[in-house]
Amino acid sequence: MRQRDSMEMSDCEFKIITAAPEHLPQILQIEREVFPDSWSENMMRFYFAEKRAIILTAVQTEEYSDSVAVAKNGSVLGYLMAFAVAGMCDIDNIAVSETHRRKGIAKALFNELENRLDMDMEYFLEVRTGNIPAINLYTQLGFHFVRIRKDYYRKPMEDAVLMKKDSVFKENVCL
After folding, report:
1. Closest of 25, 8, 169, 27 to residue 92, by C-alpha
2. By 3-state DSSP, what share of the chain in percent is helix, strand and coil, each rounded to 5?
3. What is the reported pLDDT for 119?
4. Which domains does the chain have, with CATH numbers?
5. Phi-psi region of 49 (alpha: psi -120 to 50; beta: other; left: phi over 0)
6. I need a labelling partner for 89 at 20 to 30 A (CA). Which of 54, 75, 163, 170 fits?
């Protein structure tokens, strides 16, 4: 079942679209706002250049043009960056601007990623052990604990929880 094209928030509506290079400054701004060990601009540019990368953004619909998939006037609310290869999808980054959290944006980004990929896909991500709100969200989305990755994060040093979501195909198979 496909989700609605735009989602309603309390103060605006948003649409999930494929990110364009023009989104990069706004994505970098959110990245630096959210993560103490944020990715560099060069790392982001590499990701944008990678053909297997999937980069989605949530943009305010009142600033969205169907003819040009570019956010205007600071309207990128969040983003998701992933690689999907051979039945496995690694979600490398997902972030929502602090002022737009708890409005369904992260969930909508992940749902759109699933809609765009094959049903027989396994999803993986890492999250800081201390990021309980994110762990709770990922659990609600169907992820489960795999293992702890010791000293995975820097600035500050922290372990990561590796989480996995099985494919829709595997979840629906009767044994």
Report:
1. 27
2. 30, 35, 35
3. 76
4. 6-125 (3.40.630.30)
5. alpha
6. 75
Overall pTM > 0.90: no
Task: Give me the percent of the chain exceeding a pLDDT of 90.
Answer: 62
Residue type, 13: E
**Closest of 106, 105, 108, 110 to residue 89, by C-alpha:** 110
Q: Are 89 and 121 in contact (CB under 8 A)?
A: yes
Q: How wide is the angle at C-alpha 25 spanned by C-alphas 75 and 113, nearest 5°?
A: 65
First to last CA, the chain: 24
Q: What pLDDT band is residue 71 in, cutting at 50, 70 and 90?
A: very low
- SS3 at position 74: coil
Q: What is the pLDDT of residues 96-108, one digit of tens each?
A: 998 888 889 999 9
The C-alpha atoms of residue 54 and residue 22 are separated, in whole angstroms, by 15
Nearest-angstrom CA–CA distance, 29 and 31: 5
Residue 23 tokens read as 């989104």
